[in-house]
Specification:
CATH topology of chain A: Jelly Rolls
Structural class of chain A: mainly beta
Number of helices of chain A: 2
Oligomer: homodimer
Order of helices and strands of chain A: EEEHEEEEEEEEEEHEE
CATH class of chain A: Mainly Beta
Strand order of the largest sheet of chain A: 3-4-5-13-8-11
Strand content of chain A: 35-45%
Number of domains of chain A: 1
Radius of gyration of chain A: 16 Å
Shape of chain A: globular
Helix content of chain A: under 10%
């Protein structure tokens, strides 16, 4: 297989390439992310929350280049709060990103540079534009793995610290069996 | 539907969005592209060769932004040469692009800044990285429509003139019922 070549399975978003990179995030690595710290403490910290596979055809930092990846978020909750990604904004702030949902059901949580929140529902086929200067997090609100493909600039980088400090200002909690988006302080 | 939202059908790559743009290229608009000018002259110039639909969530020229599109190349030939796109490189030369094949069979023709040629076979699931400074053209070598999704920087722009002048240095011709990649001058 040519190094400038990968295979994507459009049925589930899975990627195959000799140059694939991957990362697995377990519950123990997501301290402070979920509201219910007691529930988080009691759960098995080895539980996988999400995995990312991605292809970097060029060196990170290359201007004008692009990366392609797939994320899988497993179904689950910490207390009433659904499993979700850590969330980040790009280190080079104006860099955008596309998310394209392939399987499952979820919510894309966005927070722009003026701390304005927005959320978009994710379902198979939904294509989401994450504008520059916008922090983004994905929540699996379904009973099956949520999978989406992504395309982003190779010089975007990741800034996890800002959002870890400021939060997203909204959370997605199960409420009478249904996902409910609420403000950070709401109960 | 939110303006920052679109729907992609992963089975055929088709896009649905209230902000969708589209372009149709007919045979008559592809003068000088195919080698066999006599055959081209005799064919119906209203024949559609390819269509592109794309979503521009931000203004063209925006640094750090991205666009998403779908291209459909219809099956057909001009003489022995398969239907194909005009081909272009990006006006901002270092801007890359991803192509992801969804349906059909084809060939991606690439020509880098040093006039080196390369081609990659396209089939459902094949994901192609088109590096910066690389002119690109797609050829439908099958009997059905070739469809692929694409993601590219919103400040990439299009330069058709350079490739119109220099050509790609290779062509894909039917040879005993099979696609054959040959140099521009080869018969």
């Amino acid at each position: 297989m040519d190094p400038t070549f990968a295979i994507v399975n459009w049925a589930d978003g899975s990627l195959d390439s000799p140059k694939l990179r991957s990362s697995t995030k377990k519950l123990g690595q997501l301290k402070g992310i979920f509201r219910d710290e007691d529930s988080w403490q009691r759960m098995d910290h080895e539980t996988v929350v999400y995995r990312v596979w991605w292809w970097e055809p060029v060196t990170p930092g290359t201007e004008g280049g692009l990366f392609w990846g797939t994320t899988e978020i497993l179904p689950g909750r910490v207390g009433q709060e659904y499993f979700m990604t850590h969330g980040h904004q790009h280190a080079v702030l104006d860099r955008a990103e596309f998310y394209g949902t392939v399987a499952g059901k979820g919510m894309l949580i966005l927070r722009d540079e003026n701390s304005r929140n927005r959320h978009e529902e994710m379902s198979p086929g939904s294509l989401h534009y994450i504008a520059g200067k916008t922090a983004h997090r994905v929540v699996n609100t379904g009973d099956t793995p949520l999978r989406f493909v992504a395309c982003w600039p190779s010089d975007a980088g990741h800034d996890y610290a800002t959002i870890a400090e400021n939060g997203f200002g909204m959370r997605v909690m199960e409420n009478h069996g249904k996902p409910s988006v609420m403000g950070d302080g709401e109960v």
